[in-house]
Model the fold of this input.
Amino acid sequence: MTEEIIIAGFGGQGVLSMGKILAYSGIMQDQEVSWMPSYGPEMRGGTANVTVILSDARISSPYLKVFDSAIILNQQSMDKFEESVKPGGILLYDPNGISHHPTRTDISIYQIEGNKLASEMGNKKIFNMVILGGFLKIKPIVKLDNVLEGLKKSLPERYHHLLPINEEAITKGMNKVFLIKIENGVFV
Amino acid sequence: MSELKLMKGNEALAEAAIRVGADAYFGYPITPQSEVIEYLMAQRPEERTGMVVLQAESEIAAINMVYGAASSGKRVMTSSSSPGISLKLEGISYLAGAELPAVIVNVVRAGPGLGTIQPAQGDYFQSVKGGGHGDYKLYVLAPASVQEMSDFVEDAFAIAYKYRAPVLILSDGLIGQMMEKVILKDQQKRMTDEELIKKYDDWATTGKTDRERNIVTSLDLQPDKMETRVNKLIKKYAQMEREDLRFETLNCEDAEYLFVAYGSSARIAQKAMELGREKGIKVGLLRPITLFPFPKKQLFDLADQVEGILSVELSAGQMVEDVRLAVEHKVPVEHFGRTGGIIHTPEEIIEALEEKIIKNGSVRHHKTRESSIL
Done:
């Protein structure tokens, strides 16, 4: 099994750390992993993205053009990466700030209101964990136990008291993600 | 005990420097390799092993600190990225001329000039064709994974001391910035001064006692003596070619076409190879792990088997010249690569193979080993 994922959004949304937690989770279940961030100009006040690959075999290219799954968290990333999902693949996005919704019919498109849910939970920082929960509901490529273990590994110890709220956020995301339908190029 | 971690290439390299028992690191920050010195500083290696880590006032200062430490037999490393390596070249030529062991790391970014901070492989010429002045070569290791960023530090020190010569680890922004699983080796002890004197007393400036004094220099004003010096270096480089060439082949057994790629491009070309095979194109990959020595003989032999070769690197075409030299025009050799910090995709590589090689059909020029210059 190989899963090729792009996570893209604004710097500060937790895009890179979400990727890192996924990568750690992969390691917890003995998989090969790679995490290739965009770095540089785009990171300094703009979009951030990371390519994460989890595989049972040696990973060839850490840099890709097309992906099995895209997790998209702002309009710029939607414009850039909607076309990069392989036919039959998955696109998961947060509608917050999105004015041009995805229109492809050869992929499965899921929505999750990550910003709204995180605000309701009273902690905007767990936004990325809500999104991750949503993704894992659709694609259970890593076990929840391994994610929690991965989270523990990637969070500095001084933040370990935040582990329960992160777990709660993941569960929330899992419960609130939904498939959307597109008919005649229009989102219904 | 070995340890499994998720690390950036730059961090894995820095951690390896501590674990291998290096005595010193001198550097100056520059993207995309600043994590090396950042990680080293944060680790407090002076407490872990007694290793000295110092941010110099410039790249030039750092390479001359390397010269000083290496002269006294200490295991020393420096790292930078392309424009910073250009600044170090004078010092690197002096290290080679004075026969000093040291490890230099280049996490390449796009050039020329200040260029951009994104990954590139445009420093191939600089790395294998001297770079600095005079008749010298660097032993050049090209890691293609975070694991190799870690492992090659030990390998580089081993070669540096085997030949008493500077060794270059040629990485790039992609390998430096990405995270992968890495197995870290056990902590090795740093050499004590007594051990060092015992081992390197015949050349290093270890503090003169009852022996003749050791002079470390690259200067010899008498032409006949200087020529003897150069000949000694040339002999070393020939020995490197005989004994320490490293490369890897993938799917070459039945290959009709061949990619040649190193470092990050080798990883991307491997994916292109998989895509090609799915399409029914029998393509293999030769990955030079050392860029000097270069797998000349292997390429010469593979040229008898394949219809054409595509050299893939993140440059306007540098290594392709060495590939052409090695195959002696037996088969067409073309270059593909993006520049400016843009990374080519596996799809672009397979497209280039189809456009530049397969479409043109085979134009074979027969040549035997006997009639060749090899």
About this structure: The CA atoms of residues 256 and 272 of chain B lie 15 Å apart. The radius of gyration of chain B is 21 Å.
